[in-house]
């Protein structure tokens, strides 16, 4: 199982601070979250001509490392990994 930690708005949409999900990569993890919490899936993903992709303003970290610098949605997940989901944040 992979532990998923939600922050800010994503915590509200998930209805919890964290949950455990069975997933082999980030893509399958996001699919699973979308099936469990439709509103969360809509906040994380967007449709494009190339299919479904992660919204550019969403930050996903696996064990503290940004997936954009790993293998993106194809980043492999292993038992005990922690995935952090951060929504866009504004301020100033």
Average residue pLDDT: 92
Task: Write down the secondary-structure element order.
Answer: EHEHHEEEEE
Secondary structure class reads alpha+beta
CATH superfamily: Beta-grasp domain
CATH secondary-structure class? Alpha Beta
Unreliable stretches, pLDDT < 50, 5 or more residues? none
Q: Largest sheet at a glance?
A: 5 strands, mixed
Structural domain count: 1
CATH fold-type name: Ubiquitin-like (UB roll)
Report the C-alpha radius of gyration, rounded: 12 Å
Strand order of the largest sheet: 2-1-7-5-6
Helix content range: 25-40%
State the total count of DSSP E strands: 7
Which architecture does the CATH hierarchy give at level 2?
Answer: Roll
Describe the protein in words.
The chain starts with a strand and ends in a 6-residue tail after the last strand. α2 crosses α3. It contains three helices and seven strands. The mean pLDDT is 92. It has 92 residues and is an alpha+beta fold. It has one domain (2-86): Ubiquitin-like (UB roll) (Roll). The strands form two sheets. It has a five-stranded mixed sheet with strand order 2-1-7-5-6. A two-stranded antiparallel ribbon has the order 3-4. It has helices at 9-14, 26-36, 38-44, and strands at 2-6, 18-21, 45-48, 51-54, 59-62, 65-66, 82-86.
């Amino acid at each position: 199982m992979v532990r998923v930690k939600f922050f800010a708005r994503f915590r509200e949409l998930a209805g919890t601070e964290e949950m455990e999900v069975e997933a082999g990569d980030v893509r399958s993890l996001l699919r699973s979250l979308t099936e469990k919490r439709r509103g969360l899936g809509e906040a994380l993903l967007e449709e494009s001509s190339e299919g479904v992709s992660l919204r550019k303003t969403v930050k996903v970290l696996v064990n503290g490392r940004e997936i954009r610098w790993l293998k993106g949605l194809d980043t492999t997940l292993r038992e005990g990994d922690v995935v952090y989901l951060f929504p866009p944040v504004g301020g100033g």
